[in-house]
Amino acid sequence: MSQDLEKYHDIIEQLKPMINEPEFNQVLSQVASGIPKQKRFLIKMELKRLSRPCLRLIDLRGQVAGDCREFTYQDKTHYLDDTAIDVFEKQVRLFGEYTMGVYEAVKNTENSYRVIYQKQREEAEKEGTVVEERKPHHASVLRFGEYAKRCEERMNFAVNIELFTELNKSIQATTIDVSVSGLKVKVANEHLFKVGDRVTVQFRGLEGEYSIDRKAGVGYNIVDVESSKREQRISLQKNDEQAQHSFKDFFEKFIHGNKRRYKVNMDNTLTAINLKTYEQYFIPNVTSVPIYIERVNDVYVPKYALINNCNKDPLYYWSDELFELRLGYVIGHQRVARLLSQPENNQETIVYSFNHIKDDKVYFYSATQEELFERPDLMKVFLGYGGRKASWRVFKLQITDVDLNQVHIPLSLPDSVSSAVKRQNHPPAPRLMSRLKNLRYMALLTDITDEVGTQNYEKIPIRRGEISQLKVFGHPRNKLPPTVQMFRFKYHNQRKETRYQLRTKVQLNFGDMTIEGSSEDVSTRGMRIELNDFFHGEENDLVKLSFPLLQNVTKKFKLSDLPYVVKGISYGRNVLHLQAVVDSVNKTAQRFFEELIRNNRGKLKAHNEEEEIPGIGSALRNLYAKNVLNTAFFIRKEGIDFLPDAIVTSNPNSRLNNLLAFDAESGQYNMHFLYSTYGVELDFIQYTLKRIKTNKKPVMREIFVAFDPSREYIDEAIKSRFSDQFHGDKERKNFINQAREAGQFIAVKVFLARAGRPDIERLQAEISYVGIYAIHKAKILEEQLWNIIGVGDLVDVTDEVLIRHNFSQQQIIDNQQMPAYHKVNSDKIENLLKA
C-alpha cells in the first residue's frame, strides 16, 4: 500500500468485505463521504487490486519471530507461523478467497522481522539512534591469509599526547596502543590529516611520572587514517630521521615492564587464529583439485596437484591402466593459453570427458564447451555418446595467476616473542623455492557430474556411424602429457604408531559373508586392507580376519578369525581401516605383528610421512588458500538453528557473488537462496548436517535460481529450487526461460560436509600467546570456532546447465550479463514453484 493511502488504512479494512458486493459504490460513498472524489477513486482502485486472486506461495521461515509449519489452503502449501495463519484465515474470510490482500497482510504481520525493524528504525530516527536489522541468512565475507604480521609487540595504553603539525599547530590527542616504533591515536574530527603527513609528538601524560624531556618531541609519519562520525584514528610510524635512541630504550623498557598490566594488543593474532581455523575446516573437505602450472619458454606445463581425502576421485579418474596420473590431458598448453586469453573474471570453461577401454588400455577423450561449439557437427554426438558411458564426467575448469610471495604465510607474532616463533616466521628454504620458481598459475578442476544432468546427455539422439569421428577429441597414447606430482597437505598425524607396508592375502568374515582381499599396511594394533568386493557393514562393526599366507610362516600363532573393529570405510566401500580388538582374551593379532615387525625391521618399509621437499605441501596449500576460486561457506549451530557464519571468496565480481551480495550489508553476503528453496527438503542444510559424519565426502546438490535484482523484497528477487525436485526436464527448461526473461538464470552446485576438528598444534604458538595476556578472549574465540558444524563450497555451473538444455552459445553469453533493472511480472515462475 502506498504512503498516500496509508492514512486511509482503517477505511480500506472496513470496505474489504464489500469489494465484490453490488452495493460497493454506495457503501464507499457513505463511508468516505468526507474524502475528495480523487482520493475515493484511488481507494477503490486499491481495493480492486487487493481483491485480485493470488497464486503466490508464502514461505516465512527465517522471516518472522515464530516457528513456521506447513499450512495448506486449496491444495497449495505455505509455510507460516501461528500469527500468520490467524491473519491468513481472517483475511480470507474478508475477501472470500486467497487474494493479493491476503498475501500482503500475511507478509506484514506484527512479528515480521522486517516490520519490527521498520518500527524500531522509525522510533530510533525520532531519538537519533541507529538500529541494526536482524538478518539470519547473512554471513561475514572473509579472505584467507589476510591478517597482519607485527614486527614488534603492541601494548594497549591510553595516555594524553600533544601533536604538532609541520605548521607547528598544536592538537590534543590520546593514544590507543603503543609500540617501540609506532602509535595509534584518536583525535577529533575537526582536524584534517592525510597519509604521508609528518607530526611531532609530546607525551604529556608521561612527563609527570617519568623523566622525559618536555621540549624534545618525537617525530612520526602518518601511515593510515580511519574516520568515523565521532573521531579519527591515526596510525603513526616513528620517523627514524628524528628518532632518539634514549626514547627507544625508554619505550622498550616501558612496554616490557607494563605489558601484563595494560595488556598486549593482539587483535591481529585473534584474526589470524580465526582465519586459520576456517582454512583448516575448509581445505580438507574441498572436492576440487588445485593444479599448479609452470610457464617455461612460453609453454604452460601442469606440474603439481594438491590432494586430500575428498578430491581423490577426480584425480584418480585421470589414471591409466598402469595407475599413472594423466592429468595433463585435461589441462594442456593450448587449453591453458585459451583460458588465459579470456577476460580476467571469466577464465573458466566446462570440460566433458569419457574414456574407452580397449585391449586393457585406457583411452581418454575430452572437449571443452568452446571446442564443442566450434564443431557443431560433432557436439551432439560427443555429448550423446559420452553421456551413455559409465565413465562420463563433467568438470568445471578455472584458472588464476599466483604470486610466489603467497607460498609463505608467517605467524601473526613478532620474532621477538620466542625462538620457536622466529623459526616459523623464517621464509621457505631456497631448495623449496627453486622447485616452485616457475609456477605462474593455478587451475581448479571440479567434478560437477550428477544424475540429473547425465540423463539430459543420455537422451541426445546419435547415429552410430558418426561415433568414429570423435577421435579428434581423443588424447594420443603415443604422446604422453607431462607428469603431475601429487602432494598432500597434512594437518595432524592421527596415527598412534608406525605403519609398515605389507601386502599379503586376507580373508574377511562379516556375518555370513566372506570377502577376500589384501593388506596394504600393518601395525601392532591395526591395519588397512583392500577388498575384492564391496563391504556392506558400517563403522564400529566387528569383523574377523584370517591370514592364510602368513599362517604358513608361523606355528606359534593361530592367524584365523582374529577380531578387528572397522574404524574407517572408503568412499568406494572397498578399503577398510581396522583396529585390532585387544583384551585379556584377544591378544593374538597384537603379539604376532609385534614379533613380525621386530624380527623384520630391515625388510619391512615404514610408511614415509616426510615429503620429498619439506614444506612443499604447505606451500601449495597456502597458494590455494590465497586464491579460493569458488565460494567457501561455513555453517554454525546456534541453539537449534543452522545459520551462515562466514563466506570466503577471492572473486567478488562473479555472477554468483552478485547474487550473494543482493540485499546484503557492506562486508557481508546473503545466503537466502540456499535457505528458501521450494520443495520437500527445504531444510537441506539441517537435514544434511544431522546425517552426514565428519570426514565423509561432501554431499552435492544442484540449485536453480531465478534472480531479478529489480525487485524490492528478496523473496521476490530470488526464487530457488533444487534441480532434482522439478517434475521433468520440460519444467526445468520453463523455469530457466522464465528466469532469463525476468532477469538472470543462475545454477549453483552446493557441496556440504560436516566440519572436522581444527589442528590446534598448528595454532599453538598463537593460541598460547593469547592465553598469556587475554585468556578470556581465547576461550570466547574457541567457543565460537567450535560452534562451526558445517563447511561447504558453492560452484557456479550455469553455463553447463544451459548447454545441457540446448541453449545457444549466444544465449549463454547473454545470460552472463548482470540483469537490467526493469520490472517484469514473475507470476509464471510462481506457477512453476507451486508445483
Strand content: 25-35%
- Helix % is 25-40%
User: How would a crystallographer describe the biggest sheet?
Assistant: 8 strands, mixed
Taken together, the total number of domains comes to 5
- The chain-level mean pLDDT equals 83
In the predicted model, the low-confidence regions spanning at least 5 consecutive residues are none
Tally of individual helices: 30
Order of strands, main sheet, comes to: 28-3-27-26-32-31-29-30
Number of E-type strands: 32
Give structural notes.
It is globular and about 110 Å long. It folds into five domains: 3-117, no CATH class; 155-263, Beta Barrel (Thrombin, subunit H), CATH 2.40.10; 289-480, no CATH class; 500-606, Thrombin, subunit H; 630-834, no CATH class. It starts with a helix and ends with a helix. With 835 residues, it is of the alpha+beta class. α5 packs antiparallel against α6, α14 crosses α17 and α26 packs antiparallel against α27. 32% of the residues lie in helices and 26% in strands.
